[in-house]
Amino acid sequence: MNAPRPPTAEGQLEFLRSLQRLLDEGSFTSSYKFALLHAIADLCLVKGEDSGAELELSTADIAEQFVRLYWPQAIPYPAGNDAGILHQNTGRQALVVRELAEYHNRYQGSLVELERSRSDWDNLRRRVEQTVRKMPLWKLQTVGSERLEFLYENVDRGGSVRLQSGVAYCFRVFYPLVTDVIEGAWSHFVQRLNPQLLGQIVDLRSFLFGSQRTSLAAYRPLLRAVQRGRCFYCESDIKSRGDVDHFIPWRRYSLDLGHNFVLAHRGCNSSKSDLLAAEEHLERWTERNRTCRDELEAGFEEGRVLHDWRATRQIARWAYGQVQRAGGQVWVQANELRHLSGDWRRILSAAGDEAA
Ligand SMILES: [Zn+2]
């Protein structure tokens, strides 16, 4: 067998065309197909690589990603007395949403608590997995009477699907674009099913998929302690409250996992903006997460914050790889930008060895 190769430019264009056809022409009776596409894109970042190789994804992992996507959506919207949970199905409310709503109540909205419970968590994940395997998995790639099998073969492999070669590559390269399109289409679908919300598409979207403005204040005391009151980027004292910043910018990937947060001066945070931080910052970030690992994780547990250092690192590797390939620049300080040296590979690999 030949070594895997990244798809050609024409192959990548074909991927985008097919994806667009699927969203334009596919029939959607529930939002599951959007969730499935989003889940596959997410898993390509955490599990895939840039070689162009095939990628096997388990339906259990897809189900877990489903739960993460639907979790914030399984509460009434808009907040208020007679608000209900948004319909995500043309008929009766989507099963996954109904089940999640029940767990939402039982665990007061805390996904971390639910995951800790083991038996409830395993139960829920198994049931969602059944739904994924029964409903969207084999229907996703059908438009009208036509089959459009460009992602994976419609073959039940007993708990997994195998993404064709080049697919994980394309999802990784086009991740921001692809998820933006999926979230937009998903939001419009939900709006159509919930006509009472007419005209609220902007708010609706940030309700469904979160927003960078989500309050991160809860992280502040923990980060202040771990960073000894200093700004993560310039390392001088923070005299005011300081901003909680997504180290891997939220605009690139909405990574709300604990290790991704740092405390910074408002000025440092706003000049970094949506840029990736330079490699010296990356080194300090992996160092902080390594040396303060116990303190951070105890704090995350206490504050019911999701955290997964391995997945966080995988996403960092993806983000730096993308910028390197595109010849983009990273943020050093104030208005100073520069190109990557490639040292990020060593930094992130070293961080991986430590955690093993
Ligand atoms: Zn600073």
Please explain how this structure is put together:
With 356 residues, the chain is mainly alpha-helical. It folds into 2 domains: 9-209, no CATH class; 217-355, no CATH class. The chain contains 15 helices and 8 strands. The chain has helices spanning 9-25, 32-47, 59-70, 95-106, 111-116, 119-134, 167-173, 175-193, 201-209, 220-226, 266-272, 279-291, 293-302, 309-326, 344-355, and strands at 55-58, 142-143, 146-147, 160-163, 243-246, 261-264, 329-333, 336-339. The strands form 4 sheets. A two-stranded antiparallel ribbon has the order 1-4. A hairpin with a 2-residue loop joins strand 7 (329-333) and strand 8. The protein is globular, with a radius of gyration of 21 Å. The protein starts with 8 loop residues before the first helix and ends with a helix. The model has no long low-confidence stretch (mean pLDDT 90). Bound molecules: zinc ion. Zinc ion binds next to loops. Zinc ion binds at residues 231, 233-234, 264-265, 268.
Low-confidence segments: none
Residues in helices, as a percent range = 40-55%
* Structural Rg: 21 Å
Report the end-to-end length measured between terminal Cα atoms. 31 Å
Number of helices: 15
Question: What's the total count of β strands?
Answer: 8
